[in-house]
């Protein structure tokens, strides 16, 4: 069985998530958090950019909790 990698922690307030592509740094903050679907695939919240800060905070708390539950379930099923 291959080892599953966990999702990275969300950035701290004011901190940006970036990746290096061809020597250039790209910010991914506008994409929002990764969502673990019940089948183990990943997706994003489509309306993340249109949410207010308070909506984002509430959604992020929910997503973190649900992602943990889904990852635990998938791991216990051996997927």
UniProtKB/TrEMBL annotation:
<protein>
    <submittedName>
        <fullName>Uncharacterized protein</fullName>
    </submittedName>
</protein>
